[in-house]
Write a structure and sequence with these properties.
mainly alpha, single chain, two-stranded parallel ribbon, 2 strands, elongated, 77% helix
C-alpha cells in the first residue's frame, strides 16, 4: 500500500514536470506566433502562475495572478508618466515599486506586483518600438503567460486531486500507527526522539490540510463544469485526520496514568490492535470505501481484548473508531460492496 502511495506521488510529480515543460513551449510559441519581441517574459509569467492542480492555481496561484495584473497596470501607468509627462525615470520607478512592496506587506496577494511592475518599468526602447510600446508589449507577454498557466492548470482536472489527497491521508494514518507502536515499544523510545517524530507528524498534517483545500476547490470546479453536485469535504477530512492523531496517542497517555487498582495492559498487543485499526482505515481511504460498522466493531473487540479489560480503553476506542469511520465519509466515499 505504501508503494502505491509513493507511485501516486511520483506520477503527480512527473505530470507537473510535464506541465512546466509545456508551459515554457506554449508561452514562447504564443509569443513567437504574435511576433512579440521578448517572449521570455511570457515564459516567466507562466511559470510563476502554474501550480500542479487547478485548485492550487486558483488558491495561492490566483493571488499571484491578481498581483501580476496589478503590477502590470501600475507599471504601464509609470511608463506613461515618464514618457508622456516627463517624470524622472529612476524616481518614478523607485516610488511605484516601493509603494507596491509596502502594500504587499498589508495585502499578501500583491506580493508579485512589485516584481511585475519593475519588469514593465525597466523596459527601454527596442528597434522599431518606442519605450511606451515596449512596455505595452511586455504587458501583453505577461498576459499570455498568465493565460497559459491557467489553461494548463485547468487541463489537470482529470488528475483527480482527490485521489492524491486519499493517498496522502492514508500515509498519515500509517505514520500515526507507527508512532503508537513506538510509544508502547520495549525499551521505550527517547523523549526527544518522540517529540521529533510527533513534530514531523504535525508537519505532515499541515501539508495534508493544504492539499485538502486544493482538492476541495478543484472538486467544486469539476462539479460545476460537469453539472454534478459536490461530493466529499476534504478539508473536514483533514481535520478528522488531525483529530485521529490525538485519539491514537490518547492510549499512551491513559496507559501512563493507570491507577494501581486497574489491570496493566499488554502494551505491544494494544499498540498492534490500535495500529491495525489505523491500517484498516488507511486501506479503505486508498480504495475509496467506508470503514463499515461491522468492521469497526471487530476492530474495537480486538483493542478491548488486548487491553485485558481496562475500563479507560473503551471511551478511547470509541472516539478513535468514530473518527476513523467519519474520515471516509467526509471524503465522500461509498460503502464497500
Amino acid at each position: 500500500m505504501q508503494a502505491r502511495a509513493e507511485r501516486a506521488r511520483d506520477a503527480a510529480d512527473w505530470t507537473h514536470a510535464a506541465q512546466l515543460g509545456a508551459a515554457v513551449g506554449l508561452a514562447w510559441g504564443a509569443s513567437a506566433l504574435l511576433r512579440l519581441p521578448e517572449g521570455f517574459w511570457a515564459v516567466m509569467s507562466a511559470l510563476i502562475v502554474l501550480r500542479p492542480t487547478a485548485g492550487a492555481t486558483l488558491g495561492a496561484g490566483w493571488d499571484r495572478i491578481r498581483g501580476t495584473l496589478a503590477g502590470t497596470l501600475l507599471g504601464l501607468a509609470g511608463v506613461a508618466l515618464r514618457h508622456l509627462h516627463g517624470f524622472d525615470g529612476t524616481g518614478t520607478t523607485l516610488l511605484l515599486v516601493g509603494l507596491l512592496a509596502a502594500a504587499s506587506a498589508l495585502l499578501p496577494w500583491l506580493r508579485s506586483a512589485p516584481i511585475t511592475a519593475l519588469i514593465v518599468l525597466g523596459s527601454g526602447s527596442l528597434a522599431q518600438h518606442p519605450a511606451l510600446q515596449v512596455a505595452a508589449l511586455r504587458a501583453a507577454e505577461i498576459g499570455i503567460g498568465v493565460g497559459v498557466g491557467l489553461l494548463l492548470s485547468f487541463a489537470s482536472l482529470w488528475q483527480a486531486t482527490a485521489r492524491r489527497f486519499d493517498a496522502a491521508c492514508a500515509q498519515v494514518l500509517r505514520r500515526i500507527a507507527e508512532q503508537v507502536q513506538r510509544d508502547f515499544a520495549i525499551p521505550p523510545q527517547d523523549a526527544r526522539e518522540r517529540e521529533g517524530r510527533m513534530e514531523a507528524l504535525r508537519t505532515e498534517l499541515r501539508a495534508l490540510a493544504v492539499l485538502a483545500v486544493g482538492a476541495q476547490r478543484e472538486a467544486r470546479i469539476a462539479a460545476w463544469l460537469r453539472r454534478r453536485p459536490v461530493t466529499g469535504e476534504p478539508v473536514r477530512a483533514a481535520r478528522i485526520a488531525a483529530r485521529t492523531l490525538h485519539d491514537a496517542t490518547a492510549f499512551t497517555r491513559h496507559a501512563a496514568l493507570r491507577r494501581s487498582d486497574e489491570p496493566e495492559v499488554d502494551g505491544p498487543a494494544l499498540a498492534a490492535a490500535v495500529a491495525g485499526a489505523l491500517e484498516a482505515a488507511a486501506t479503505h481511504q486508498e480504495a475509496g470505501t467506508v470503514l463499515g460498522e461491522e468492521e469497526r466493531r471487530g476492530l474495537g473487540r480486538a483493542i478491548a481484548v488486548s487491553a485485558r479489560g481496562a475500563a479507560w480503553v473503551l471511551p478511547a476506542t470509541r472516539l478513535l473508531l468514530q473518527d476513523l469511520g467519519a474520515l471516509a465519509g467526509a471524503s465522500g466515499r461509498k460503502r464497500a460492496r
